[in-house]
Fold each of these.
Amino acid sequence: MSLEVELQKDGVAVELLRPHDDGAILPLNKEMIERLAINKSNIGVATEVEMLTLIPACHTAEMSVTSNYSRLIRQHLHPYGLKWLHGMTADDTILPLANAVEQLGVQTDPDYWAATPGNVGHCLNTLLSWAREHPDATWEVI
């Protein structure tokens, strides 16, 4: 069992700029750069060719969180767990998420399913980064 967590604007998961999980930076095509309203002034004096190789790929702000993490989330974030986020603006959740991440740490265990402080902290740190990137978006937790 798991909870689905999304950060939304107008009922649609927001897009995030971040590298792939393996750290690779994927190139964007010219159309994607224009769509994201990115221009040379945003990244200094880079040429268009450099821009195509330096800008990280887009991903949507949605994840499935295992219920194995529930106890630690309730202890460190809120007694209602992740469901507490539902309907809140991301900006209102930045401080509680940051506090929970600080308490738990982000050192992950090789076993994703293990309910370790680091695994839970890593998960919440991802949500925190989304909230910071889109503070005006709203959490959807089902």
Amino acid sequence: MKYGFIKSVIRSLKRKFGQPITLYKTTSIGTMDWTVGTVASRSVESKDIKRAIILPGRTTRKFSYDIGFLAANKNFTYGGFYDVTQREIIIERSDVGTFGLTLDYRVRFGESDYIIKELQEFEESQSYYLVVIKLKGQINEQ
């Protein structure tokens, strides 16, 4: 087998360091109560993964300028700092099954939701490599 070594390494890492995650996507949103800001009904498509390899996260502080400063070359109007946590996750293809993983899904790990920033498939569809991000203070969707 051409990729037998890669498959055995991924399975070994799953046994030693694997943690449960949930992949989910909101498929439809029903009515919204604008006075309170809550959604009355929501349809969610999800898939539980028993063991995913979750690599350590990095938190960085970023700064964004107001679009008026960039577009019109005016004096600085306003901007802001925000903290972003980025993690890498490896999921074995057999754990996903026929579930069609795309960038539209989110990852729930522990009590935090992460947005999929980058999605790659390893050789011969052996596994998925995800780069996920979370903004500090973001509200969890589920």
Amino acid sequence: MMLMLVPIAPLCAQEWDDDFALDTDLDEFEDYQEFPDEIRAGVNERVKTFDIAGLMLGMEMDAIREAMRERRYTLKDTEFSIPEFFQFNYDALCRARNIFLPDALRGCIEGFGKTEKMRYMTRLTFERPDTKETVTVFLTSPLTRNRVWKIDYKNDVDDKPGPGINFQYQREERRRAFWFSVIQKYGEPNVGKNQWVLDANEEFSQNLKAFFGRLILENQQAHLADVFETQREARRRFKTRDFTF
């Protein structure tokens, strides 16, 4: 279908007509690239090599900072936390010291976390303002060396500043260009229309999901293994009174 733009002022005032709109469903791209609906059995080994903005799953802090520096991303925000079962341990220790008021109890728990080096950076967000891109990196605990288990990338491809058909047209072209660049970098999805999975037959397998203006690369197995390890270690360290009976 040929789209002809008339002068800008009438376009801005006109509401977007769904009958006139470009098809925004992923089926639009089937003329250019085949996207099978069914899950294809087997292993896609390439998923192991995937990166987003130079970041890869399993990276440690020094490599993260170097990759972001090379691509001119700057640190925007960080988040710290203590694994849940370690918080339970510290809660018991603090209460044993007769610390019960919420603020004091919270401070005591944080103090134990810092002392035992279990209060750690769980998330970092980097931004590249000139291209309106952000990358959020999620890390495992110190027990598994603070490695990347999830990368969440976003840009403004899907933004639409107004209802005019000029804005709709511009967004469709940004979407199209973004999707083509995704296929060019990662190849054809092997699960559905927008997922690349290391092993399509294995639950929680390492995978990449793509949306308009967003990419999520994650290894749920690494995350779950870290959660299991923190629970196991917290139970091992839990302190009780010595009973004499």
